[in-house]
Amino acid sequence: MIRFDNVTKLYGRDTVALEQVNLEIEPGEFVFLVGASGSGKSTLVRLILKEMEPSRGAIYVKGVRLSSIPRRQIPRLRRDIGCVFQDFKLLPNKTAAENVGYAMEVTGQKRRAIRTKVPQILDLVGLSAKMGKFPRELSGGEQQRVSVARAFVSQPRILLADEPTGNLDPETSVGIMNLLQRINRIGTTVLVATHDREMVDVMRKRVVALEQGRVVRDMVKGAYADEV
Amino acid sequence: MRFNLGFFLKEALTNIRLNLLMSVTAVTTTFVCVLVLGAAILVSGHVEGIIGSVRQDVSVEAFFSPDETQDRIDEVRQQVEAYPEVSEVKYISQEQALADFKDTFKDNPEIYQDLGSDVLPASLAIQIEDPSEAEAVAGKLRSAGFTDENLSYPQQTIERLNSVTSYMIWGLRAATALFLISSILLISNAIRLSIFARRQEIEVMKLVGASDSFVRTPFVFEGMMQSLVGATLAALVVVWFNYLFVDWARDYLPFFPISASAINTFLVLVILVAVGAAIGVLGSFLSVTRFLRV
Fold this sequence. Notes:
heterodimer, A: about 230 residues, alpha/beta, six-stranded mixed sheet, 7 helices, globular, B: about 290 residues, alpha+beta, Alpha-Beta Plaits, 4 strands, about 5% strand
């Protein structure tokens, strides 16, 4: 589903963000990407979204080499990749329902489809009572659930989450993780970049560890740190 | 993908409502710029109108000697009418000349009371299309048999007028163009500021998979609506002011040939509104595009 082939990413001339990363993520997998701040997690996520180009190497998403996708086709790529960010990235002037609906509007879906689908999804994330609220009227956990709903509403095959629980308390984080797990269970490939140690240890999923831009560990049913 | 006009319009209107201060700034900037632009058009229109009417007064008069036969006069008149430089030829008979004379001095009838109808010569009043061709027309008239005494044309005045007025007209046009350019810069700057404040929204839209045009269209609509409002208000003020000015000039500047016909108000209205809207569209289009590279 996602494949990194010897990918190196430099910022400027000599700041190494990723170094010769090789990674293969199968369809339907749930993968944690762990590492300290600055280890390259966010860079990896942004490369998958084609927010920027790798300096060397190739990235394949759904079998398509990203460097072969023209700029005009990037929106199409992103519509099949749901995204959740640490800072939620909701549109401040839109209600929860409108934020979720926007992701459907961009794909040109019918008004009627949007009107039926959005409440369903918000119900799924437990926010049906807050559909008309603006992001500033919602708690962090609620905003993140809106953001998950938005990422998932067009049923993408891939869901990327960059520090989705970074701004949330542990209890709320569990709720978000459960949500991601449910999304994964219906076949969506989920990649979560995080440094939430407890969460990773509890969930027992595949763990890819980055250190200074290199993949230092890749374990099925792994933990955040090497097992003692 | 279907073009979702309703969605885009709703987006634009919501954005205007939520960013009211920025909208007011954009509308005001457009208003002021279009006002200045309109003022420049008014000034140059009226000055060109004055220049035009002064130039139009440039005519060559050719006097016939009293013993010329009517047949000969008609023949010459037809010849002159055929000159390409000539826009209008008016024949003034001896009787007409006397009548005009009487009219001019109607307050002092003693001046003309002894004049017979054969004292004043018949003449052709020849209007020339382009004042710089007065000399050429005079030359042709000479070869048609008129002597210098029988021709009256203010050659030197014409030449001077010609060079001064063409400088003035070009100066005015250059000034108008400068105003136009600075309006474009000011307006697109105001729009850019309002979009800069929302660049993060644009980034989010792009990350959710919106295409460039999907993000851009509401902004362009918004810019167009704002500048349409500003430009329309300014255009109305300009046209209204023009009426006041023409009225005022009629009473206080009677010697200046200022007339309402120098300005095509409808055209000015259309031009100002169209220029305003175009700047709004162009300005917002270019400004959003700068932030679309996500």
